[in-house]
Amino acid sequence: MIVFKIILLFTSFAFAYYGYNCLRTNLMISEFKRFGLTKKQRQLTGMLQIIGATGLVLGLFHSWIGLFASGGLAVLMVLGFGVRLKIKDSFLQAIPSFVFILINGYLFYVFLRLI
């Protein structure tokens, strides 16, 4: 269970950090333009990532919240991976979203077993 918690906390931090950057940094503003996504889509992505990160941590106390958070983040990463494929990014550029699909799938599985 300690490995699960470490993975969960790492993932939560990563999504909170990326979500904040989606909302605040010029680098992410330019990246979302490169992705062909709108300002609203960038802001929604950032907010969903922050909410998902918070939900993962709350999942340590209420498994059903973690279940929804990990499932939602997995879906978000599937969409992100799809965008990377659509704009023909290299596999190396698409790897992070694919890895986070797998990680959130694992978290979802563990939360499902805890309910």
From TrEMBL:
<dbReference type="InterPro" id="IPR032808">
    <property type="entry name" value="DoxX"/>
</dbReference>
<feature type="transmembrane region" description="Helical">
    <location>
        <begin position="44"/>
        <end position="61"/>
    </location>
</feature>
<dbReference type="GO" id="GO:0016020">
    <property type="term" value="C:membrane"/>
</dbReference>
<keyword id="KW-0812">Transmembrane</keyword>
<dbReference type="Pfam" id="PF13564">
    <property type="entry name" value="DoxX_2"/>
</dbReference>
<feature type="transmembrane region" description="Helical">
    <location>
        <begin position="92"/>
        <end position="112"/>
    </location>
</feature>
<protein>
    <submittedName>
        <fullName>DoxX family protein</fullName>
    </submittedName>
</protein>
<feature type="transmembrane region" description="Helical">
    <location>
        <begin position="67"/>
        <end position="85"/>
    </location>
</feature>
<keyword id="KW-0472">Membrane</keyword>
<feature type="transmembrane region" description="Helical">
    <location>
        <begin position="6"/>
        <end position="23"/>
    </location>
</feature>
<keyword id="KW-1133">Transmembrane helix</keyword>
